[in-house]
């Protein structure tokens, strides 16, 4: 009976729900008998344990003081921002249907069977006219075999390459059907673009279709390295627009716009050591588009006016160190045989000197004007040729030859194909 009572008391304790508050109880004592044995240590400890008392109730924290939400900014402060916001959203809705994503694939040589195509690049473009011509960059489509175009409404169509021009990094694709609402974008006169004006880019950075970024025109009159010439030098792409609107891989070929929704340039490159945007982007100016693209549509190619010279900028520092007869201009370092410059009688130098560890041929003509327009460096010369002249035009070159100036007439040729 003793064991039964002790066992019953222990069982009663063990089956109580954990975490519940226990009432104060006295454990039953074993009934004494003639042969009572000493209780175990565990039973003695249980019997002498202090009574369990209920825990104190949980205290509810007092509520924090009432606090009204911060007031919104007053209209006199937000109205200008609202106007800009409304303009950007309206511009995006209007322009976006004309901006496309371009997916390029190339033919792969046969591997154990038939040839197949593999994706090679992705870029952007925009609708140039109502006949399905799409402007993009040459570097987006070069080496491509097939081209797939995605419009903003989800329409996907195949396109064919109509023409391309490495010298301006422009190319034209054509689709045979347009989705509803897709209309061509108007071109601005890029000669009116000014530093500080708003610049809006729409394109497909990293494949993120129809992304808008906003910045300003941060520079004009830049030049980019273009295709190589037969003599080992490189032609330049002049009149480039610089912007801080975010441009990343995939934006190439998309439009750079002003606040009116007009194209001021075609996004083409970024200045970056990491491959991502670091604050300086470049766009081919719209006036180059208006000159080059119609020729690509018509002929599949564009002929750049060409003189046939190698050149080096002259500045006061170089003029003083080499005792040159002009303080600014373009020093002719090479005349290509049988070129327009050679036929016109322009002269290159005969003396070779070292400047900054590189050889430079001096003693040649220094171009200081073209058609009466002052030429202070090679960017100004190339810019004038690209925007103001065409193949077959006759121009008047003013050159400094020794201690005298001469006027030399030259008929421009077509830049040789690489």
UniProtKB/TrEMBL annotation:
Chain ranges of the PDZ domain: 293-361
Class of the enzyme per the UniProt entry, highest EC level: oxidoreductase
Segments of skewed composition (Low complexity): 47-59
Entries under InterPro entries matching the protein: Chloro_Bact_Ser_Proteases, PDZ, PDZ_sf, Peptidase_S1_PA, Peptidase_S1C
Alphabetical list of Gene3D superfamilies matching this protein: 2.30.42.10, 2.40.10.120
GO biological processes: proteolysis
Keywords: Hydrolase, Oxidoreductase, Protease
Enzyme Commission (EC) number: 1.3.1.74
Taxonomy, superkingdom: Bacteria
Protein name: 2-alkenal reductase
